[in-house]
Amino acid sequence: xxxxxxxxxxxxxxxxxxxxxxxxxxxxxxxxxxxxxxxxxxxxxxxxxxxxxxxxxxxxxxxxxxxxxxxxxxxxxxxxxxxxxxxxxxxxxxxxxxxxxxxxxxxxxxxxxxxxxxxxxxxxxxxxxxxxxxxxxxxxxxxxxxxxxxxxxxxxxxxxxxxxxxxxxxxxxxxxxxxxxxxxxxxxxxxxxxxxxxxxxxxxxxxxxxxxxxxxxxxxxxxxxxxxxxxxxxxxxxxxxxxxxxxxxxxxxxxxxxxxxxxxxxxxxxxxxxxxxxxxxxxxxxxxxxxxxxxxxxxxxxxxxxxxxxxxxxxxxxxxxxxxxxxxxxxxxxxxxxxxxxxxxxxxxxxxxxxxxxxxxxxxxxxxxxxxxxxxxxxxxxxxxxxxxxxxxxxxxxxxxxxxxxxxxxxxxxxxxxxxxxxxxxxxxxxxxxxxxxxxxxxxxxxxxxxxxxxxxxxxxxxxxxxxxxxxxxxxxxxxxxxxxxxxxxxxxxxxxxxxxxxxxxxxxxxxxxxxxxxxxxxxxxxxxxxxxxxxxxxxxxxxxxxxxxxxxxxxxxxxxxxxxxxxxxxxxxxxxxxxxxxxxxxxxxxxxxxxxxxxxxxxxxxxxxxxxxxxxxxxxxxxxxxxxxxxxxxxxxxxxxxxxxxxxxxxxxxxxxxxxxxxxxxxxxxxxxxxxxxxxxxxxxxxxxxxxxxxxxxxxxxxxxxxxxxxxxxxxxxxxxxxxxxxxxxxxxxxxxxxxxxxxxxxxxxxxxxxxxxxxxxxxxxxxxxxxxxxxxxxxxxxxxxxxxxxxxxxxxxxxxxxxxxxxxxxxxxxxxxxxxxxxxxxxxxxxxxxxxxxxxxxxxxxxxxxxxxxxxxxxxxxxxxxxxxxxxxxxxxxxxxxxxxxxxxxxxxxxxxxxxxxxxxxxx
Length: 910
Hints:
Elements: H1 2-24, H2 33-42, H3 67-86, H4 112-138, H5 142-155, H6 160-172, H7 180-215, H8 218-234, H9 244-305, H10 309-322, H11 327-366, H12 379-386, H13 401-412, E1 414-423, H14 424-435, E2 439-441, E3 450-459, H15 460-471, E4 473-478, E5 481-486, E6 495-500, H16 502-505, H17 544-555, E7 568-572, E8 575-580, H18 582-599, E9 601-625, E10 666-667, E11 688-694, E12 700-724, E13 729-750, E14 753-777, E15 783-795, E16 801-806, E17 816-821, E18 824-828, E19 831-836, E20 840-857, E21 872-893, H19 894-902
Parallel strand pairs: 2-5
Antiparallel strand pairs: 1-3, 4-5, 6-8, 7-8, 9-10, 9-12, 9-21, 11-12, 13-14, 14-15, 15-18, 15-19, 16-17, 20-21
């Protein structure tokens, strides 16, 4: 088979060379009219039969071969002779039998011209069949080519090319054995083809080099000429028929010579071009430097005009770096330096003034009494604060667009399912068809798990979760598809994130308020007011281990395999260090946010002590006295505590202070032994006094006193404090006051002169307000349970009451000394109340009413219907007091206040 293929290729090359030779050969000369006539005379004329009545096509008539065919026959004969000479067996070869055209009845053709036209048509059709067969032959379709060649020979039996190719195709198709003549001819033709091919290649190479030589490309031309010489030198046959070797050698010499001269000219041209280019570049550089300096000077001038002295100074220094002798640059630099100094001085003065004004504005803003629960900064500033970056892994929040689309479909698409023990793979296929989502099942998962579910118009996400729960599987997002796998197989990239949980784990301390105690100065006598202290245990607080356990339990134990650093969580200095998937990180964020929502709750507690007084006093009376005695009459004067300087006998009881010694010389109405009538808050002693005196026939002095007092007081003392939920806090506003409680008497003196020294004993007490609260917010954030301990201590009078005591010494300076006795009102309530958010509750109170009526008159005279007022004194007082202790509480959630002030569209932290 291999030998046969080799022969086939040899034959193909021979045919191709024959085609090229026939194409390049000169066209055949046209046959002259005389020769044509002669050939026609030599042609055997036979009668042409007319077409039969049945319409049968006449058969072609044989024709003698033309000049071309005769020439081909002569060439074939010469080849045959040479082959016979080379043959070992010199047997005479029989002449080929002439091919006779089928006889055509004479009656088929009327004239000879019709016969010739028939022959031309047959030859044309035969040539068409031959061309078709040749095309098929070149396409290696030998069976079809053989049929076409046979059709050509049937129409033109003298077609030599068709005969030759018919033999070749039959030989290739194993229908004929190759003859010696065909083999020899093929070898010869192959040799001729090879020689002709090399000649053409040599000619093409030489012509290419010559063309390059004409174009001045001497390097490439020399290479082509040398290649041509190598072809001539190493080819075994003579192919240099046009003296290419000599011509190539001469052209190589000329090319090298011209190449040398060309290089010289090119070098000169390059030098000239480089010189010209350098001159142009130098001129351009000078122009560029000049333009640049002009631009810099303009920029410096503009900066000076805009008071940008630092920028102008920098530009001027750049000018001087490029042109140190530039006078304009030096002048501008001097202006910039002076301007900068002047601007700095002015700016420092302005900044000092602005700072001074800013301090006053800050102080004015500091005294603004804000009543809001929480005051945020401006919206722009808060937006900047809200955009602060949180965490170290921004890719947790950045999901691929395809995953976001899948999540939207899961959250919004509704489906209806009805499966009874259907394999999981079929359920997944059904969901893929109706939703268009890509859902893949892990190869390690049993895809034939039965699914039994009946749902109608349910969300796709809920339906998928129910299917996963039923099959003990889970789904995750992997490579932008829904991936169903075994529980605990968290396939995905582990992401490291840091969570700050200091605000959650920070223990909120309790602060118990101080206790106000009021003791007797000596610790005995009169007793003391004390309140029992409460020892409150601290509540347990969340520790890091508890928080980690909550997170692991909320996200599932399978999410924390702790394998090769994946699925780990640890605590470090107020931070959680977590390595897990994006989904687990989102769950952790939700858990921490929920904890913060419940931990960031505060309560504003306000406790008010409201004390209302309504007092009334009326005092009406007439006193009669005699005229005052002259000085030195010998009568003892009565003390001023009796209210006058009337004459009379010596006092009945001079050691009883505050009492009248005698009434022998006067008529005076007194209540309870005191001159003035008053109550706890209205002391009396004021009003209208009218004095009338009669001198004849007797001396009498009458004093009319009319007084009426009304006092209404509304006093409120309030304390406000903000406490964390379940935190005990207090606020105290106390004043510590000192008073003289007693004296220590020490003896002294020089020689026989004794002296007494009174050393006062100073003690102190506290007055003010203490509010101790512990709020507890209900789960629905509607009510507040408050453990409250308000205390208010204050003096009952504006000043501290004093008494004069006698130290019992003989020294006049130490006989009488004042001792201060403070009267303190202590108001306190210990209770626990539940208050609605923003509501008010009454903790306790005190109601006090005091009514007093005094009448002092003379018997019998005081009973007279009309004149009784001349002989009596009436006093009436009504004192009312209402003390209320109120508490108001309000829940404050800072995040809710943020949404209320700025809305929900505030920028989220990054």
